[in-house]
Amino acid sequence: MKTHFISIFYKQKKYQFILSIFVILLICSNSITYSQNNEHYVLKTLVIDPGHGGKDDGAPGKHSKEKDIALAISLKLGKIVEENFPEVNLIYTRKTDVFVPLDERADIANKNKANLFISIHINSNKNTEAYGTETYVMGLHVTNSNLEVAKKENSAILYEEDYSSKYEGFDPNSSESYIIFTFLQNTYLEQSMNYASFIQDQFETRALRKNRGVKQAGFLVLWKTTMPSVLVEAGFLSNPNEEKFLMSEDGQDYIASAIFRAFKEYKRVIEEKSQFSSKIDSIKFNNENKNDIPSNTITNNNISFKVQLSSSKNPIELDSPFFKGISPIEELKINDIYKYTCGSFSTYNEIIEFKKQIEEKFPDSFIIAVDKEGYQIPLNEALKIVNN
Ligand SMILES: [Zn+2]
What we know:
The chain is of the alpha/beta class. It has 11 helices and 12 strands. The strands form 2 sheets. A 6-stranded mixed beta sheet has the order 2-1-3-6-4-5, with helices on both faces. The chain starts with a helix and ends with a helix. It binds zinc ion (ZN).
């Protein structure tokens, strides 16, 4: 038992080190990906990643294979994107029935400086009654069923000869391996979440699919992408009705067009927001003693990092039990959305330490950055400013 714990501890340390190097690389690569602050942001490059392929069939249906349906939907999606946005640089990780390792898929997106990565998959479950769509973003799973989906998708690496060294000893079927995602700092979580929620909305309203929600889990294919990225599970091949739908031309058209509509909406929103910077309209605290409140303005670089707990279309009372006793809570009203944060630090290291205390109560919380002008700015932009 003890040695088991020590080995986990050792692995944690090792992964912490690997991840810190990764974070540094990420910051460096972001400075290349993003242009100057005053330039208008344009979504230029989209990568569509049809799951599995070649020797990897993915989930088996009774009459179909996941790899074929994922490819069919991906090609349909790409076609609609090309027709509507010929200026978008569209890249596929595969266009035919070939095997592509998971790390190569992320590499393709990173090398091409993609602005968005969409990985398309079809789910399966022992329970043949299960049906509906889910969209995942990179993160630590909160439920076992999310972990099971990640295990199933990550098992694709077992087809790669040198997977053990390539993925730093990661065993897709061991729950223990997923501990590395505890330390993940997902710079693009908010954007990825936004796009994922647009997709789920479209699945529900346009394609009339059951909405199983936006979820988080540790997917290797999303792990090292340096842009907003999502993994779509467009239905269950294990459900006879859904398999029939997903095999049909109409069904595939509906799914592709829903993902496209979400893409169109996402593109519009981020381009309008101009590099995601958003003016904060009002700020409210729930602590009368202002001395207790870390200042937004008295910092060297005038950037403050905060932990966002939640956001809502309607205001939440700052002393509500919803915040699980965390105080002070700060409310930022941005574009008619109320964002609830806690903590305010001038360095990234401090906020990472602080966030660890918050994670127990809010596992989905994430770090945001606010500048001295009262704008929420992209985290990668803030890190650039702080590191200069
Ligand atoms: Zn899959």
